[in-house]
Amino acid sequence: MWIPEKIKSLRKSYGERQEDFCQRLGVALSTLRHWEQGHGEPIGPARKLLDRLEEDLREGRIKQPA
Question: According to DSSP H, which parts of the chain are helical?
C-alpha cells in the first residue's frame, strides 16, 4: 500500500522535487500532490513504477543523493 508518507519518503530518497518526481512517474503534478496529501493512491502502472523505484533503491541499484 502506498501511503502519503511512503510516497514522500521515496521521492525525497531520490532527491527530487514534486515537479521532477511526477515526471519520473508519468503523472500530473496535481496527481502526485493528491497522493502525498492522502487523497487517493497510485494504481496501475504508476503503482508498479513506485514499487520498482523502491526496490531499486533498497537493492542499491540507485544511489541516494548526498
Answer: 4-13, 18-25, 29-36, 44-58
Q: Which of 15, 5, 7 is nearest to 43 (CA)?
A: 7
Q: How many CB atoms lie within 10 A of CB 16?
A: 15
| Angle value at C-alpha 8, between 27 and 61, nearest 5 degrees | 85
Residue 18 and residue 34: Cα distance in Å, rounded? 11
pLDDT digits (tens, 9 = 90+) for 25-54: 999 999 999 999 999 999 999 999 999 999
Q: Tens digit of pLDDT for each residue in 46-66?
A: 999 999 999 999 998 877 666
Based on its alpha-carbon atoms, the radius of gyration of the chain, rounded to whole angstroms, reads 11
Instruction: With both helix axes pointing from N to C terminus, report the angle between 18-25 and 44-58 in degrees, rounded to the nearest 10.
Output: 110
pTM across the whole model: 0.89
